[in-house]
């Protein structure tokens, strides 16, 4: 995916020369970009997660993506994996080619307004050319994703209505929703670890809300299951609009609109031991992986490690316990940050490297982890310190793509 033949040398040189500027001003530029975008095209609030906007996560994620594109503008192949990760999110949100010129126009305008005189005509012209090439790459990859989805049995493009056939409270903060297609059609054979997007219209909220939720069960012909954590107000952040709506307003018999399963965080087919490490609601995609692995990889040694604040917020624990009890190749460990009942867990405190080394027979395993960003950063640091090969380390962010550096 070299852009050397698509962009002249001067354009490439100018774009790459802006990398230090983007490192310094990228978040400011992208924050201003979203302000311009929603002012000029308020209808796009129906697509972008407004909670992530308020928290600053989305602008920072975009800044990271723009920085990576600038640094690799002469060889976008180097960031192909990132492009595909974003492409999955875009496909699940039904992003279309016509959205890209709108984004480009407002991004260039934001660069000009934030950088002022430093954003010369040559720089803006170079970035306009570069953005066109980058947008074409995204559009091409996403077109392939749409076409692949369209051809897959049981899958669909856009949104499909499902009704809630069961609602189960898994913990004080996590509730599972069992969903069947309203049209009575078949379900897709998705990959364990993938997510769907829920689209809802909430009374009092002036825009449509869309949220990604991991599927917490293995592929089957009967239902989809999502297990949703209610995000309460804390640390100055408002409550989760969609999660609160689902917990309090959606009941058995109600209908939800879903996009088809998407995502790159999927269980592998290796014969190496499978280590699944979850924190909080990060347990959801790993439960799907576990259910799949015990059925399809019965000879594989599996280590399922879950960390939670305490037993009251530990979701899906009965499901995992039953699987571990019925499968000798599954080794189940629980870590509670604090508890009055230490007999309910294997460790009180946090997951750390010495403890991991004490329960795992080898570092030559496939590691999958998911949870809060700080939790994942700590796990990643421990695995790298243990000399786990980077190719054996897999993780997923809930929300905009971040970094564990």
From TrEMBL:
<feature type="binding site">
    <location>
        <position position="195"/>
    </location>
    <ligand>
        <name>FAD</name>
    </ligand>
</feature>
<feature type="binding site" description="proximal binding residue">
    <location>
        <position position="90"/>
    </location>
    <ligand>
        <name>heme b</name>
    </ligand>
</feature>
<feature type="domain" description="FAD-binding FR-type">
    <location>
        <begin position="157"/>
        <end position="268"/>
    </location>
</feature>
<comment type="function">
    <text>Is involved in NO detoxification in an aerobic process, termed nitric oxide dioxygenase (NOD) reaction that utilizes O(2) and NAD(P)H to convert NO to nitrate, which protects the bacterium from various noxious nitrogen compounds. Therefore, plays a central role in the inducible response to nitrosative stress.</text>
</comment>
<feature type="active site" description="Charge relay system">
    <location>
        <position position="142"/>
    </location>
</feature>
<dbReference type="Pfam" id="PF00175">
    <property type="entry name" value="NAD_binding_1"/>
</dbReference>
<keyword id="KW-0274">FAD</keyword>
<keyword id="KW-0285">Flavoprotein</keyword>
<feature type="domain" description="Globin">
    <location>
        <begin position="5"/>
        <end position="143"/>
    </location>
</feature>
<feature type="site" description="Influences the redox potential of the prosthetic heme and FAD groups">
    <location>
        <position position="89"/>
    </location>
</feature>
<dbReference type="GO" id="GO:0008941">
    <property type="term" value="F:nitric oxide dioxygenase NAD(P)H activity"/>
</dbReference>
<feature type="region of interest" description="Reductase">
    <location>
        <begin position="154"/>
        <end position="405"/>
    </location>
</feature>
<dbReference type="InterPro" id="IPR017927">
    <property type="entry name" value="FAD-bd_FR_type"/>
</dbReference>
<dbReference type="Pfam" id="PF00970">
    <property type="entry name" value="FAD_binding_6"/>
</dbReference>
<dbReference type="GO" id="GO:0005344">
    <property type="term" value="F:oxygen carrier activity"/>
</dbReference>
<keyword id="KW-0408">Iron</keyword>
<keyword id="KW-0560">Oxidoreductase</keyword>
<feature type="binding site">
    <location>
        <begin position="280"/>
        <end position="285"/>
    </location>
    <ligand>
        <name>NADP(+)</name>
    </ligand>
</feature>
<dbReference type="InterPro" id="IPR012292">
    <property type="entry name" value="Globin/Proto"/>
</dbReference>
<dbReference type="InterPro" id="IPR017938">
    <property type="entry name" value="Riboflavin_synthase-like_b-brl"/>
</dbReference>
<dbReference type="InterPro" id="IPR039261">
    <property type="entry name" value="FNR_nucleotide-bd"/>
</dbReference>
<dbReference type="InterPro" id="IPR000971">
    <property type="entry name" value="Globin"/>
</dbReference>
<feature type="binding site">
    <location>
        <begin position="397"/>
        <end position="400"/>
    </location>
    <ligand>
        <name>FAD</name>
    </ligand>
</feature>
<keyword id="KW-0479">Metal-binding</keyword>
<protein>
    <recommendedName>
        <fullName>Flavohemoprotein</fullName>
        <ecNumber>1.14.12.17</ecNumber>
    </recommendedName>
</protein>
<dbReference type="InterPro" id="IPR009050">
    <property type="entry name" value="Globin-like_sf"/>
</dbReference>
<dbReference type="InterPro" id="IPR001709">
    <property type="entry name" value="Flavoprot_Pyr_Nucl_cyt_Rdtase"/>
</dbReference>
<dbReference type="GO" id="GO:0046872">
    <property type="term" value="F:metal ion binding"/>
</dbReference>
<keyword id="KW-0521">NADP</keyword>
<comment type="similarity">
    <text>Belongs to the globin family. Two-domain flavohemoproteins subfamily.</text>
</comment>
<dbReference type="GO" id="GO:0071500">
    <property type="term" value="P:cellular response to nitrosative stress"/>
</dbReference>
<keyword id="KW-0561">Oxygen transport</keyword>
<feature type="active site" description="Charge relay system">
    <location>
        <position position="100"/>
    </location>
</feature>
<dbReference type="GO" id="GO:0009636">
    <property type="term" value="P:response to toxic substance"/>
</dbReference>
<dbReference type="Pfam" id="PF00042">
    <property type="entry name" value="Globin"/>
</dbReference>
<feature type="site" description="Influences the redox potential of the prosthetic heme and FAD groups">
    <location>
        <position position="396"/>
    </location>
</feature>
<feature type="site" description="Involved in heme-bound ligand stabilization and O-O bond activation">
    <location>
        <position position="34"/>
    </location>
</feature>
<dbReference type="GO" id="GO:0020037">
    <property type="term" value="F:heme binding"/>
</dbReference>
<dbReference type="GO" id="GO:0019825">
    <property type="term" value="F:oxygen binding"/>
</dbReference>
<dbReference type="InterPro" id="IPR001433">
    <property type="entry name" value="OxRdtase_FAD/NAD-bd"/>
</dbReference>
<dbReference type="InterPro" id="IPR008333">
    <property type="entry name" value="Cbr1-like_FAD-bd_dom"/>
</dbReference>
<dbReference type="GO" id="GO:0071949">
    <property type="term" value="F:FAD binding"/>
</dbReference>
